[in-house]
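queue> pop job 88
queue> type: inverse folding (structure -> sequence)
queue> payload:
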């Protein structure tokens, strides 16, 4: 039998290659080692030949295995394995018992030097000095005079720095220095400050510890001076800290100024997210966060400057984001070099995660998740931390290991790098490449020199280390990772050149071991511990040997007797200590309470919230900053926010959240959320706010008055009010000048007499105007409201229009007069009014309203006059609404006066105003018309699916604020629609209210009876059949939006005439949806742009409707069903699109023919969308039904594509 060296031979993997090889490599050296033991056994003896000499390898620790005895000693004793029925109290042993045993038996090497903590710490410092340990670089105890250092007598400062730490800061401190405070205080309210450097393994090494009860620049100067006295003055390249300037100020005063002073990216992001709550609109909050991240991560300094300027301007000019904009401008805009990525390129550090990790180790491992009461225990824990870090560093150097986090990043980058298509890589020079990405282009450079450092951060598959290449992406340039772009280039370079493995640098382990143990801290050394380590080792050996050998009964008894004698020595020994000076404790710390956990991962499934902040792409960030935030706000139904106390006061009783939610649901509303808000952040006052979603057409529910009135009527607690007009002897008059036809031709007005304002109803009055402006008035573009104190002006009033130079007045909240031109300039930077200036800015005349004495009431839709401003003392309110649409003006006026007429001396009584139109006709406003609708009970029951009597239906309608009664003659239901219910247009709207009042949950589900035979429409059937065939041909079906932008159908397709046949959307809410599409091609090209990273070729099709203007149709337009297909690849592929056309015609049974009357043919055709000479028209029945060809290069570029594309678009309706 032969026993070979364990290092001899070649490594043969047993798996499938999924798991990576260990970082230190295989124990096998790849060749034979001559060391061998040959054993030959005969009948009488055993002959052993021993060849002890090893060759071709060293005796490296990382490749040796633990002996069985060592493994047994490490394993120790499982207490619960020894438990029996008779074990007694041992059965109940738990974690705190183990902790107490460790404390009482002084396990882990710690023995208190004195019962008094202050004395124990002082004894430890003396012991360190007497033993020649120079780890105390500064010590000032409490009670000692601190005048020489600028400290008070009660101040405490202890700075610890062992030899290993001095070596590390000397070696790595010139690159990066991180400093921060460890949160989680002890009972003395001492703070722990740590200075940290980053070693070659990208691991954080704490190099100095400081305990102090004071957090000031004076203490930090002492801290920095102690470092200088220990290792001398040195310059560092990068200094990272939190947002407090005291750390860096002290460092630069003692050492030198630093080139890169950075703030931790995580701290910045955390602060920004907290202050983003200043933006009340949750959707706008997300958008600002995306723009903020785009600005922060921009790597080009010039682009960053432009983004920064535009970003701040957008923030300050928006009323919702202004408060956050001021915070950002004050705290971050003036020092971008501390947080912007463009200033930290190549620095290799972005966050203070090294210190975050250190904090967690200290608090949750070495301090056992407790607020440590004694300082000497804390010091011992820190020295053990350094000891463990030294040994971990020894392991990393010896076994060449890398952390799982860094390894996973390398593996993930390698996987993503393989997914990059090779055709996206362009070689610029011998050691320089460019990779084209979906969002940007990245430059990769290979360094000229070989890496001769002891480098563990490497990709073994690509045979590169972190120092081999550089890339211009954020992952490499900022975060210091081997990015996917480097992995891809390295893999291609490896395949091209077949370069060898990365050069392995031999490590002399004996030297490293000697250096390591020379600098190990004596963290476990205790007072009077002569022979202690020897006793401890013998005890551990006994534990290991007990499990290894079987003992006789006599041997076991002898061991028991000796062990009892040893234990009696310790039980009978007592030490007495004299209590001396105590450290001053802080009563605010509960030392038994566990330290609050820092944010981390959780396996619990959490509820998704609308406020989640997500990261944008580069393009999204640029669009958000340069095109403004408002464009990207999606519109939803208005929300009414009401304070809880005010809501229940108006309703006359209190509800629980569940009860009120149920009431809203029954009434057809939705309680969006209930939130706690702080009106004043500086105070602790909190209020509960109910947020209710209101249907967009229920203008009567947009204020608390209308909502509570309707809910009380719904619960039969209030009768429906009757709105009426008063008959004053002299009516006020508003005259409309014909000049207003150029800007706003219509105006209506009304008066609320004897109104009483309180703080709550005044706020509601202003809030309702704002909601109407945003909703039915379409942000004042259609209509604008003006409210004025009637007692300050004299009628009649004139609504006219004048050139801006001729208009001059004192606007609201100003103290002097301005011309209209001056006001437009002033308000161009106003965060609230800026958004309305475009409505009249380019008009030759501006609308203006005067009273009899030429006092300006308002310049709609921009601003009211200061002279007519209303306040709490206002008793008579003159309300005017100017508009482009008379009906909208009536709706707005009716809603406003009906909602707040309840506060007048005569509730629900409104004084009308005579309005004289340009033709001289006089009309009284508001009209307050009540409309009557007749409804068949049978039709209502049938339509809804219920079976109610006419009287019951009438009662249900009355609950919904629609007064109803049964007509005695016909049995029909007579419904009176009040002036507040402008949402009721048709009988179906009335039936909807019946269904709401009845309760949707109470309606039984039934299948309606029909007498027709269902069949598929021929057009739909043809579309589905063609879709199936095109899918069989290898094309993928897409579904794009019916609405698109004007640029999509005109400029991007190079078609100037497209807009003349397109249906335009009035007042589009976004630029993306301005017209109805006239072609399917833009949607497919945008789909290709969104999927450019997919493997080529991309073959897409869509069969859907387009809409074309047609004066022959009653509605002025017609739908047209079309088929559109595109082919996107490195080559145009015209023949593929042509072949698809032939296949479609074959399926339609339409043969090719030179005579269009009997088949189809293609003819040369000029279309600016297609490449000249490579476009054809599809003819059928003497009529052009489609186009095919190669798209023009400009069209390709307009849709941000970079490869040729061929397209076919065909009208399929002629084939029905």
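queue> result:
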């Amino acid at each position: 039998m032969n026993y070979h060296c364990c290092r001899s031979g070649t490594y043969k993997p047993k798996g499938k290659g999924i798991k990576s090889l260990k970082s230190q490599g295989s124990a096998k050296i790849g060749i034979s080692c001559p060391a061998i033991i040959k054993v030959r056994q005969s009948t009488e003896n055993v002959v052993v030949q021993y060849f002890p000499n090893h060759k071709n390898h060293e005796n490296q620790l990382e490749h040796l295995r633990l002996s069985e005895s060592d493994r047994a000693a490490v394993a120790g004793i499982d207490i619960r394995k020894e438990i029996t029925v008779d074990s007694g109290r041992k059965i109940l042993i738990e974690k705190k018992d183990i902790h107490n045993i460790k404390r009482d038996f002084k396990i882990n090497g710690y023995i208190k030097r004195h019962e008094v903590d202050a004395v124990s710490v002082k004894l430890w410092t003396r012991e360190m000095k007497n033993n020649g340990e120079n780890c105390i670089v500064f010590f000032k105890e409490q009670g000692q005079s601190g005048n020489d250092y600028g400290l008070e007598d009660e101040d405490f400062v202890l700075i610890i720095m062992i030899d290993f730490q001095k070596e590390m800061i000397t070696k790595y401190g010139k690159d990066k220095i991180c400093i921060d405070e460890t949160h989680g205080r002890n009972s003395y309210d001492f703070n722990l400050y740590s200075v940290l450097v980053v070693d070659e393994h990208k691991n954080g090494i704490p190099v100095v510890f400081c305990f102090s009860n004071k957090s000031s620049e004076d203490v930090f100067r002492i801290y920095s001076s102690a470092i200088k006295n220990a290792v001398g003055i040195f310059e560092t390249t990068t200094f990272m800290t939190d947002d407090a300037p005291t750390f860096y100020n002290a460092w630069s005063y003692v050492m030198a100024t630093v080139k890169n002073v950075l703030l931790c990216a995580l701290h910045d992001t955390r602060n920004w997210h907290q202050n983003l709550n200043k933006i009340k609109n949750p959707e706008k909050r997300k958008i600002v966060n995306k723009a903020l991240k785009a600005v922060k991560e921009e790597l080009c300094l010039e682009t960053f400057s432009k983004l920064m300027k535009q970003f701040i301007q957008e923030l300050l000019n928006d009323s919702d984001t202004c408060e956050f904009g001021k915070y950002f401008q004050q705290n971050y805009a003036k020092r971008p070099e501390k947080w912007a990525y463009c200033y930290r390129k190549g620095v290799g550090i972005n966050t203070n995660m090294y210190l975050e990790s250190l904090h967690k180790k200290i608090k949750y491992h070495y301090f056992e998740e407790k607020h440590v009461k004694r300082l000497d225990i804390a010091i011992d824990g820190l020295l053990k931390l350094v000891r463990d870090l030294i040994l971990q560093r020894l392991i990393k150097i010896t076994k060449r290991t890398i952390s799982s986090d860094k390894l996973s990043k390398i593996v993930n980058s390698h996987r993503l790098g393989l997914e990059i298509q090779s055709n996206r890589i362009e070689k610029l020079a011998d050691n320089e490449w460019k990779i084209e990405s979906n969002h940007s282009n990245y430059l990769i450079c290979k360094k000229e020199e070989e890496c001769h450092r002891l480098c563990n951060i490497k990709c073994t598959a690509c045979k590169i280390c972190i120092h081999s290449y550089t890339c211009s992406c954020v992952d490499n340039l900022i975060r210091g990772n081997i990015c996917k772009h480097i992995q891809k280039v390295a893999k291609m370079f490896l395949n091209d050149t077949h370069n060898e493995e990365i050069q392995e640098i031999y490590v002399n382990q004996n030297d490293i071991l000697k250096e390591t143990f020379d600098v190990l801290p004596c963290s476990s050394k205790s007072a009077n511990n002569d022979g202690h380590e020897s006793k401890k080792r013998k005890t551990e050996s006994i534990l290991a040997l007990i499990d290894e050998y079987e003992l006789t009964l006599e041997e076991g008894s002898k061991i028991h007797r000796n062990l009892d004698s040893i234990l009696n020595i310790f039980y009978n020994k007592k030490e007495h200590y004299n209590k001396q000076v105590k450290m001053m404790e802080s009563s605010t710390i509960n030392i038994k309470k566990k330290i609050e956990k820092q944010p981390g991962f959780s396996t619990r499934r959490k509820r998704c919230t609308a406020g989640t902040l997500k990261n944008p792409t580069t393009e999204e960030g640029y669009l958000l900053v340069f095109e403004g935030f408002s464009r990207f706000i999606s519109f939803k139904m208005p929300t009414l926010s009401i304070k809880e106390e005010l809501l229940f006061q108006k309703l006359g009783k209190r509800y629980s959240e569940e009860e009120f939610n149920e009431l809203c649901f029954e009434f057809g509303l939705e309680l969006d959320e209930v939130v706690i808000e702080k009106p004043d952040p500086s105070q602790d006052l909190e209020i509960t706010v109910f947020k209710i979603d209101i249907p967009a057409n229920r203008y009567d529910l947009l204020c608390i008055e209308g909502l509570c009135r309707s809910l009380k009527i719904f619960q039969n607690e209030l009768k429906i009010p009757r709105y009426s007009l008063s008959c004053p002897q002299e009516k006020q008059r508003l005259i409309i000048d014909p000049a207003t036809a150029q800007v706003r031709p219509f105006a209506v007005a009304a008066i609320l007499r004897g109104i009483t304002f309180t703080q709550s109803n005044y706020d509601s009055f202003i809030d309702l105007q704002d909601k109407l402006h945003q909703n039915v008035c379409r942000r004042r573009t259609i209509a604008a409201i003006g409210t004025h104190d009637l007692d300050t002006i004299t009628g009649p009033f004139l609504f006219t229009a004048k050139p801006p130079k001729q208009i001059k007045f004192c606007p609201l909240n100003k103290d002097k007069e301005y011309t209209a031109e001056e006001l437009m300039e002033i308000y161009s930077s106003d965060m609230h009014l800026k958004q309305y200036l475009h409505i009249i800015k380019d008009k030759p005349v501006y609308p203006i309203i005067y009273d009899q004495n030429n006092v300006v009431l308002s310049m709609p839709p921009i601003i009211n006059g200061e002279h007519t401003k209303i306040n709490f003392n206002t008793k008579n309110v003159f309300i005017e609404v100017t508009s482009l649409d008379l009906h909208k003006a009536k709706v707005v006026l009716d809603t406003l006066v009906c909602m707040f007429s309840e506060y007048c001396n005569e509730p629900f009584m409104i004084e009308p105003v005579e309005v004289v139109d340009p033709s001289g006709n006089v009309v009284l406003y508001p009209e307050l018309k009540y409309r009557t609708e007749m409804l068949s009970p049978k039709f209502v029951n049938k339509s809804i699916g219920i079976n109610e009597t006419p009287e019951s239906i009438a009662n249900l309608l009355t609950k919904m604020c629609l007064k109803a009664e049964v007509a005695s003659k016909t049995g029909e239901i007579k419904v009176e629609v009040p002036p507040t219910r402008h949402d009721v247009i048709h009988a179906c709207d009335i039936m909807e209210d019946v269904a709401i009042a009845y309760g949707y949950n109470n309606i039984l589900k039934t299948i309606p009876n029909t007498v027709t035979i269902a069949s598929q429409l021929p057009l739909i059937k043809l579309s589905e059949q063609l879709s199936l065939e095109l899918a069989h041909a290898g094309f993928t079906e897409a579904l794009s939006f019916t609405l698109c932008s004007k640029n999509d159908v005109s400029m991007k397709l190079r078609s100037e005439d497209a807009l003349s046949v397109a249906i335009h959307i009035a007042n589009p809410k976004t630029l993306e949806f301005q017209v109805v599409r006239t072609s399917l091609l833009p949607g497919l090209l945008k789909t290709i742009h969104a999927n450019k990273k997919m493997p080529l070729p991309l073959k897409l099709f869509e069969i859907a409707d387009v809409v074309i203007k047609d004066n022959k149709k009653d509605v002025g337009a017609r739908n047209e069903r079309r088929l559109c297909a595109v082919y996107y690849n490195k080559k145009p592929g015209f023949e593929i699109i042509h072949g698809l056309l032939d296949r479609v015609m074959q399926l339609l049974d339409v043969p090719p023919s030179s005579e269009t009357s009997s088949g189809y043919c293609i003819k040369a055709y000029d279309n600016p969308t297609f490449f000249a000479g490579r476009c054809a028209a599809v003819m059928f029945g003497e009529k052009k039904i489609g186009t095919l060809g190669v798209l023009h290069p400009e069209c390709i570029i307009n849709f941000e594509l970079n490869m040729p594309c061929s397209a076919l678009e065909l009208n399929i309706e002629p084939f029905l």
